[in-house]
Design a protein that fits this description.
The structure is a homodimer.
Chain A lengths: L10 H9 L14 E10 H13 L6 E4 L23 E5 L2 E4 L12 E7 L2 H9 L5 H4 L6 E7 L9 E9 L1 H12 L10 E2 L26 E6 L2 H10 L4 E4 L5 E6 L7
Antiparallel strand pairs in A: 1-5, 1-10, 1-11, 2-5, 3-4, 3-10, 6-7, 7-9, 8-9
Chain lengths: ~260, ~260
């Protein structure tokens, strides 16, 4: 990960730098050791169904915190969080169409909006790196490859769609180690959902990811697949809500919680 | 596993039945929930090297207990254990050659003999079955297939040789689950050492195991390999000690410790 400047070394400082416009992202490498989350903001009338969707699909949709309707705070993740200003960039979706990518959503905020912070793979990737494992997408300086699978999520209300997975190649020994390490982090996607033959989960061609970038599989390596936070984003888009706001890719919510807090043992 | 008669439902009762000659083994299915161990008895002059061999190779050689020289007791595993009588059948090795398979080793016991009890896969197999996983060798009513690999153990004194592994086939989801479950049992072989391509660890043909019986790999399954207690037995045989006594295959030491005690979380 990129070395962040010392003033961005914790979640609160990172958010302050983002809020003031001093730092515009991406957030990867900011506040090392602190949890970053995906953001989903939607009208209260759809929030209950979306929450049920997350509850029914905890591996792709691990909920870290949910706001009160109309309140852009998430005090359990940081006592000064203002979700209208604290992410470097947002995406605004109207009827399932991307309409804007603002750096501030103050003018869009409404009393009926509910925000969800959802765990992301940055947390377990940090643990994999600390264990000495190589993350191919990092070595190759690209985004992790992500694939739509033939595994359906459990629907809730208008939310449904395929499980999307991220893929990291490892040799067998590192795959076993990666399963052990990520199993400790159920709140941030947890253990892999599959390894080995991609066709078994409906992936026809590893070199053509649906999101992110293809990475090299070396001789003797196998692909290992984790449930991915793009799953709820794809379900949201397909639901065509009149309004939905998410983080822009790579521009996450940086929190005051440490990744290590989410290790179950 | 075979249903044992009620009077063999705990370790002490099982040993009493064996000691009296009422029950002659195999011990699989006896005293469900209780740890069974491999037995290795050898002259004290070789015990330190063998212990170092086990310490350097903990996955195939997880030591549960070591006796005092000349004392056939292992009080930490059961306060009435008498290793001369409490296993259904033994094997006697002289200069690396199998010379006898007695049901009692009282007449061979000497003041300089040291006994090692070594963890066995029965403990983690119980946890796999409780988790609803199918053990193919059990469904097929045969022994688990075992293979000599191209992975060398760390030698100690005259003890050395290849890592021997046992193999259980699983689909990807069950392989991930099996890694999680067996990772909790480091004292009884722990996590797998390999999965997927057998050639990567020097296994040319899964249908021709070096020990035990071949099992069917179904479509979409992968072989998963665990370090196996046959590893120290093969190292012992190759060391050609003037005297060595082991359990006979399937005739283990039944202890008073519960498998669940060996789960680290």
């Amino acid at each position: 990960m990129r070395k962040a400047s010392p003033e961005l070394d914790n979640g609160r400082a990172a958010r302050a730098g983002i809020r003031s416009g001093e730092f515009r992202g991406p957030t990867s490498g900011m506040a090392p050791g602190y949890v970053q989350g995906n953001l989903v903001v939607l009208p209260a009338e759809h929030a209950a169904d979306f929450h049920r969707f997350c509850q029914a699909n905890p591996k792709p949709c691990p909920v870290l915190a949910i706001s009160e309707a109309g309140n852009p705070a998430l005090p359990t993740l940081g006592d000064d969080i203002d979700l209208r200003t604290d992410l470097p960039r947002y995406r605004v979706w109207i009827d399932g169409q991307l309409t804007d990518e603002p750096t501030d959503i103050g003018s869009l905020w409404r009393d009926d909006l509910v925000a969800f912070a959802i765990g992301c793979s940055f947390s377990f990737e940090e643990a994999l790196i600390e264990a000495g494992l190589e993350l191919r997408h990092q070595s190759q300086g690209c985004n992790v490859p992500m694939y739509r699978t033939s595994i359906a999520t459990t629907p809730a209300g208008r939310f449904s769609g395929p499980l999307v997975v991220s893929m990291r190649p490892f040799d067998a020994a590192d795959a076993i180690r990666a399963i052990q390490i990520t199993s400790r982090f159920p709140a941030v996607h947890g253990a892999p959902v599959h390894l080995g033959d991609p066709a078994q989960i409906g992936i026809a061609d590893l070199s053509r990811p649906d999101y992110g970038d293809a990475v090299t599989l070396r001789d003797g390596e196998m692909p290992v697949f984790w449930a991915c936070g793009v799953t709820p984003q794809a379900a949201l888009r397909a639901a065509k809500l009149p309004l939905c706001i998410t983080h822009a890719p790579g521009s996450m919510l940086v929190t005051d919680r440490r990744n290590s807090e989410f290790s179950t043992f």
